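User:
I would dearly like some help making sense of a protein record. Take your time, and here it is.
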Amino acid sequence: KRETAQQEAQNLRVVQGGGHPATLRRFHPLQLNFDRLEDLRTIARLRGWTEGSPDGERDKFLFAGACFLSWIIAPGQLYHEAVALAREFCPAWPQARIYNAVSAVHKRAQNSAQGKSQSYQGKDKDCRYTWSNNGLIERLQITAYEERHLKTILSVGESRQRDAARKID
């Protein structure tokens, strides 16, 4: 039998990044997504977005943030938390615009909570959105400078540099 989404979320997973398995960091999905949400805030701070994200960036940052939230909180709280997050990235948006931006994330979170899954490459997977680091770096146009300040959204090159630095210490 396949595990339910809640059981799967309780398992630790290895975040791939090269190196010896003993040196790989283990992340619980809740911690990984919380840290990624904090990485979004770090990017906004580094870019000087004190009054919210500029046009063209708001949808991307709110959508990604809502995806991360969907792994952290119950679906019934997702809209409420998305509104709070929107105050950081798009403070002038009305609630209807925020709801529209995160409705697909909310639907997938509800499906996951009901134990539904989706098939991906022949395996049943949680139906909530997941992002690869490369996908986030490309979508959010994260620079190498910004990566150096992030905790989890890292390119292979930055991961290797950090791994090499750990081995020196």
